[in-house]
Every structure is written in structure tokens, then in C-alpha cells.
């Protein structure tokens, strides 16, 4: 109950006029995940209900609804799924709920939330994107007026393009928030010996093939008329998100073939952070693995390092 209350208070700090408040609000699900990975799904459910009540008492019903929908309920669901396990057919090992499935649920949640926002804003003139573009253009006009200048046509075009990408950026940020807080919480639970499940190896992370078909439909629909195309492109970005981690798994698995793998991974992530666009290639790597079996081939090279090249050629 204390963790849920503190989580809700951290979430409400987003209303403070301070950049640091955004960081506190971003970390608000951390306590929910920590409770869940340490005490179980029932405990995180209690924390979720307590946090929602505190958000209502300290804020408003809208704050409570936003906290429950965006932070608490997704954390409770992901913790519940994460703690699910089964015994392998040989009865020797415990198979935990795969992280690739968790990422798929997260992408599905982002898509459903996006559709709900679209439906909610459909009653407004022009819908979601018109409202976003009008808001951002008004901000540009305000800043330009403060400097006694008129916004350039290039700036207005850039703002229009940015407004079309804003829902996708917000959705990706929301998914990343849950991934980061979940990993931090599990790491802390493991550090103190509280964890109810072990950490997963990113090198073995795979997403279900059903996600590829959903992504293919979204990409094909991206070429439709303006509104439908924007909606499909946004959902396609959400569905592409799990493939980034699948691709990172391939990179980690391949790095284990070399001795300087730590240095190699540091350079890789540094370039990824600076450039950004290689994330698309990483996601493509994750998709290719589903059909070409890159993970299996790399694992074969690791199993026979003395003649790995020949092994790889024989399997091809």
C-alpha cells in the first residue's frame, strides 16, 4: 500500500513546473514493478488500487484514471504475466513467460490506447492530428511573437510533420517507460535477493510470428488515405517496437563470438544512442531472424568455434 501511494504521488509530480518532475513521474511505475517482482501479483494489485485511490484524493478523478490506465494497470498485468511459469517436458527446468510475449502485450496496449484516444478526440473538429498541429502551431506563434518575428514557412512545415509523428513518439516513450522501470525493478529485486523470477537473457528474446502478420497489415494500410494512413503508420511503429529488442538479442548473441564483446557492445550502443536511425536496422534484424533462423545459425557457430565457418556453410 505504501509503494502504491508513493507511486501515485510520483506520478502527480508531472504537474509541477519543473523538468526534474518529469523524471520523477517517469519512475512512478518502478515501485509497482518492485512490489510485484518481490511479493507477487496480488501485492501489485493492492498497490495499484491504493495508488489509484491516492491519485484521486491528491489530484482528481481524471488523474486517478490516467494513473490507473497508463501506469498501474499495465504494470500489474505485466507483472502477472511475468510471474507465470511452467515445468519443461523433462520436468527438470522451469520455463518462465517469455519476454518477447511481454513486449507484444505492451505494443498491443499502446495500440489500444492510441485507438481509444482517437475515438475520444473524434468528436473534436479535425480529430487528434488537427488538434495536435493547431496546438503546436500556436506554440510556435507564441514564441515567434515574443521575439518579434514571424515563423518561417519551413518551421511551420516541420511542425506539421512533427505533429503527425507525435502520437507514435508518445506511445514509444510510454512503452520504454514500462520496459525501463520493469528492468530496473527486477534488477533491484535480484540484487537484494527478493526476486520471484530470474532475469531473462536478451540473446534468447524472440517475438511471436503472429506479430509479424499484424505489422504487415499495418504497413500495407499505411498507404491509405490521410487519416487511415496516419493511424496505420502509428500502429506500425508500435508493433515494430518489440522487434528492436529481438534484434538486440541477435547483436548480443553475435557479440559472444568475439573476445572483446564488452567493448564491441559499448561501441554499438554508443552509436545507437548518438545516431538513432540504426534502430530501424536492428528491428529489421529481429524480423529477419523469425524467417531466416539467424539465432539458430549463430548458436551453431558458438557450439563449434573451432570450425564455426564450415558449420555455418553446411547449415546453409
What's the layout of helices and strands?
Blueprint: H1 2-12, H2 19-26, H3 28-39, H4 41-58, H5 61-82, E1 85-87, E2 94-96, H6 99-121, H7 127-146, H8 153-191, H9 209-221, H10 226-255, H11 261-275, H12 278-292, H13 294-303, H14 308-315
Antiparallel strand pairs: 1-2
Helix pairs in contact: 1-2, 1-3, 1-4, 3-4, 3-5, 3-8, 4-5, 5-6, 6-8, 6-10, 7-8, 8-10, 9-10, 10-12, 13-14
Provide a descriptive summary of the structure in words.
There is one protein chain. With 316 residues, this protein is mainly α. The protein has a domain at 201-305. 77% of the residues lie in helices and 2% in strands. The chain contains 14 helices and 2 strands; from the N terminus they run αααααββααααααααα. It has a two-stranded antiparallel sheet with strand order 1-2. α1 (2-12) packs antiparallel against α2 (19-26). The model is unreliable at 307-316 (pLDDT under 50).
Amino acid at each position: 500500500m505504501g509503494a502504491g501511494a508513493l507511486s501515485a504521488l510520483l506520478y502527480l509530480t508531472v504537474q509541477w513546473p519543473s523538468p526534474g518532475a518529469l523524471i520523477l513521474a517517469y519512475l512512478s511505475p518502478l515501485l509497482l514493478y518492485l512490489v510485484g517482482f518481490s511479493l507477487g501479483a496480488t501485492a501489485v494489485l493492492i498497490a495499484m488500487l491504493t495508488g489509484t485511490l491516492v491519485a484521486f484524493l491528491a489530484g482528481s478523478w481524471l488523474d486517478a484514471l490516467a494513473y490507473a490506465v497508463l501506469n498501474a494497470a499495465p504494470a500489474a498485468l505485466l507483472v502477472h504475466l511475468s510471474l507465470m511459469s511452467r515445468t519443461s517436458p523433462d520436468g527438470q527446468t522451469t520455463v518462465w513467460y517469455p519476454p518477447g510475449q511481454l513486449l507484444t502485450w505492451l505494443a498491443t496496449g499502446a495500440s489500444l490506447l492510441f485507438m481509444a484516444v482517437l475515438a475520444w478526440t473524434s468528436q473534436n473538429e479535425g480529430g487528434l492530428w488537427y488538434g495536435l498541429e493547431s496546438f503546436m502551431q500556436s506554440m510556435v506563434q507564441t514564441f515567434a511573437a515574443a521575439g518579434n518575428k514571424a515563423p518561417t514557412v519551413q518551421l511551420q512545415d516541420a511542425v506539421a510533420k512533427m505533429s503527425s509523428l507525435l502520437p507514435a513518439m508518445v506511445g514509444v516513450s510510454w512503452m520504454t517507460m514500462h520496459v525501463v522501470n520493469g528492468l530496473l525493478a527486477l534488477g533491484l529485486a535480484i540484487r537484494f535477493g527478493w526476486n520471484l523470477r530470474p532475469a531473462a537473457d536478451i540473446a534468447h528474446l524472440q517475438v511471436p510470428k503472429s506479430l509479424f502478420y499484424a505489422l504487415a497489415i499495418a504497413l500495407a494500410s499505411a498507404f491509405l488515405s490521410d487519416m487511415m494512413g496516419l493511424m496505420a503508420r502509428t500502429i506500425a511503429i508500435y508493433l515494430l517496437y518489440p522487434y528492436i529488442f529481438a534484434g538486440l538479442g541477435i547483436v548480443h548473441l553475435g557479440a559472444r563470438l568475439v573476445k572483446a564483446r564488452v567493448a564491441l557492445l559499448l561501441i554499438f550502443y554508443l552509436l545507437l544512442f548518438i545516431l538513432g536511425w540504426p534502430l530501424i536496422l536492428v528491428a529489421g534484424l529481429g524480423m529477419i531472424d523469425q524467417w531466416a533462423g539467424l539465432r539458430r545459425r549463430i548458436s551453431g557457430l558458438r557450439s563449434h568455434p573451432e570450425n564455426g565457418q564450415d558449420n555455418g556453410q553446411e547449415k546453409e
